[in-house]
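Students often ask why we bother encoding 3D structure as a string. The short answer is that it lets us treat folding as translation between two languages. Here is a chain of 109 residues written in the first language.
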Amino acid sequence: KFAAEAETAHLAHGKELEQLRAKLEAAHAEAVAQLQTEHESLIGEASARIAATTADAQRANAQLEQVQANVAAEVHRQTDALRADLANAKADAEEKTGKLASFAQELAG
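And here it is in the second language, the structure alphabet:
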């Protein structure tokens, strides 16, 4: 009788262990699935942030290129204007020098 009770208790204990093992495996599988979902979500969020940052950098680069082009065009325009002013001043000075030379000849002659 004792052996039969011991066998029954052993079987019951084995059944409990099997149930606990099954629960543990189910909990482990659920935790792994949840971690995988969270991991994929984080990867998606990081990818979206990277894409947004890349787009921002591309816009900033395009704006910088436009500013550089505008500065270069303005420098070119101002350089041309200064050259024209210099040429006009030179012509004016030459004209005045010629008039002074003529006036000096009249005074001398």
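Translate back mentally: The CA atoms of residues 57 and 75 lie 27 Å apart. Keep this in mind for the problem set.
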